[in-house]
Here is the input.
Amino acid sequence: MISFFHDPQTFLYIQIGSFSLDIRWYAILIMTGAFIAYFVAKKDAKEAKYIDDDFFDSVFIYTLWVGIIGARLWFCAFYDFNYYISNPLEIIKIWDGGLAIQGGLVAGLLYAYYYCSKHHYPFLKIMDIFLPNVLIGQGVGRWGNFVNQECHGAEVAESYFNGILSFLKEGMYINGHYYEPLFFYESVLCILGWFIIHEILKKYQNKRGDLTYAYLMWYSVIRFFIEGHRTDSLYLGPLKMAQLTAIVMGVIGLLGYLGVYEKFFPKKKPTLIFDMDGTMISTNESIVGAYEEVFRVFDKIENFTEERRKEVIGPSLKKLFPVYFPDYDYDTLYKVYREKQIEISKITNHPLPGVVETMKTLHEQGYDIGIVSTRSNEGVKELLEDFDMSECVNDICGVFDVEKVKPDPEGVIKLINRNGWNKDCVIIGDSMLDQGCAVNYGAYFVAFLSNPDIEEEIKAAANDSITDMNELIPILEKDISFTYNLK
Here is the structure.
């Protein structure tokens, strides 16, 4: 036997012999709310960048299940602890009802903190994406209480439901009496809170955690108000557990929003990813001179136009050689290029202003420092050794370490993942390729203005710009979130 809507609380009822299964509307509505929240949060995560799809899906699924377990245990603990401890098998009978959203929040947040820490994602960054959207799930899920005829207030007169509340009248008629539809008020306030935080506050957010703390404050106020009118609350002694928890959540949210925690828990330093050519070392003359030699040998020097002289600064040889010299293999071209570049670079290469002293200072201050370059690893190491900066750089990702060069963020992701560095990242570069890489990863971008031809363009697209590397240090001391969109 299979039947839909077997009774008012059942969506689907299946009976085969002695086996029976009923899927309740309560479960359908809770899961519907959860997955609406998931899809909205997924969209927000794509806008925020750098959050891997597998990580996002995993943290959602695991946190959801941990949250459900936490919600069940919270209910059992504060509804009738002695009964459930005496009948432990009853704890798993979640289909008989009994979930406490605050227990789910506490368990879910603790697990999410563990999971984010394990995978080197900043907890508040992830929560700023997830938590405001949880309000959607809560708003939809509350209608499961309507189906179950719970989460109601005191007895009211039939006239209470005249007007806009009339559609709730039948469902709020319980055991011969009408009751105040508190579930409805909470549902509406949750959706309103989502709109205020997600659609309004988010546009003005300038500090990591603001959306998380706003959620905690908003929901704590809602829940405190609702619990004050409920007649089916969970208790801790004489106190309503939900109101007590709401007070704690609200205080945590308020202190966080005011920035109190930052005085006791300093932020983790962002990862620093540098470009090499034109950012740390002035190599333009050796690059142009080496290309000039390749054109002289394999083409015509007059074909190395002024436009091409500008074009070769930034992109990798791997990208441009096939465009300019399609009839020759990479190794043949590179041999001529490299010999000339070494000859010229001994005379022309030099560190850009403030680079050497700033790199040493940042290294001493404990920053994780990497270089993502369109040079080979060997080429980068040679330059670092030439100017006594080898010890300042923790790791390098060269052109042959990646399948996709800048502006693809593959090199940045490789460095951060293989070293377990902070995923909050500052990229320092001199080209629009570096800027594109920062955008595609979600990194804070500092433009080093060493190329007059693109100065206005790159300044307009950067979070900050500098002409001397010493200017980077005060930028890193700012009280901001180091991501491209600042959120």
Residues 282 and 350 are 5 Å apart (CA to CA). The mean pLDDT is 88. Residues 53-86 form the longest helix (34 residues). The chain has 17 helices and 16 strands.
